[in-house]
Specification:
The protein is α/β, with parallel strands linked by helices and 225 residues long. It has ten helices and eight strands. Helix 2 crosses helix 3. The longest helix has 23 residues. It is globular and about 50 Å long.
Length: 225
């Protein structure tokens, strides 16, 4: 994997990603919006870097839509079925086909879309409304985006590198206060982590991505201040 990584474009901050996507937009030669996949393991820091990239692009006058796959999660009875194998979680935890059909493709073709997704049988029931107009770049953020079935959809893809310990810590900080630590550990170790490992083994998402993002680490002097 280290050898493959050395041949990849490696980003350490949002400004670097913004520059590449800005150039992609400038050279696009088409009126259709560009689709960018920003993927990685659950808890890997995808949402944070996506937000920073979107802000940087908007400062350049580029119209950006952000789509979170979390808003297309399957109902809890499907996603967290105790009979699920890691492969079934990988395949069914998110309604990616529905997201592509109802939101991404219309947005790519027309640059605008109005639609809603309803999440009922989930930990955080909600309705997510989309009202995008004249979009230049679509940033899709979430796990499992770099399955082979979806690769042709993207104009550019980024794999967000993260280890599982850091991912668990992020998820632990995000978890609902009523969720017990033991339940989260069981969920992470029993489904989320092995499903991510299955994805990495099956799809080689880092190898499939156009580039890799590795968060820039502060030096020891800064961390001590």
């Amino acid at each position: 994997m280290d050898g493959e990584l050395s041949l990849k474009t490696v980003f350490n901050n949002a400004a670097q990603i913004k520059s590449v996507l800005r150039d992609l937009h400038t050279q696009k030669g088409s009126s259709k919006a560009k689709i960018i996949a920003i993927s990685g393991i659950e808890g890997g820091g995808k949402r944070a870097i996506t937000k920073k990239v979107a802000q940087a692009l908007r400062l350049e006058g580029i119209s950006v839509a952000i789509v979170h796959t979390d808003d297309w999660e399957a109902c809890d009875s499907v996603r967290f079925n105790v009979m699920n194998s890691p492969e079934e979680y990988y395949l069914n935890a998110y309604r990616l086909d529905e997201m592509v059909e109802q939101l991404i493709l219309p947005l790519k073709l027309f640059g605008s879309v109005q639609t809603s997704v309803h999440l009922e049988d989930v930990l955080n029931p909600r309705t997510v409304d989309y009202n995008f107009e004249d979009i230049d770049i679509i940033l899709i953020e979430g796990p499992y985006l770099l399955q082979s079935a979806y690769l042709d959809l993207y104009d550019y893809s980024i794999w967000v590198e993260s280890d599982f310990d850091a991912a668990f810590t992020r998820l632990d900080n995000q978890v609902d206060i009523e969720q017990s630590q033991e339940a989260l550990v069981n969920l992470f170790e029993g489904l989320i982590k092995p499903a991510a490992q299955y994805h990495i083994y099956t799809d080689d998402p880092q190898g499939s991505a156009n580039s890799v993002y590795i968060e820039e680490q502060e030096n020891d002097d800064k961390s001590e201040q």
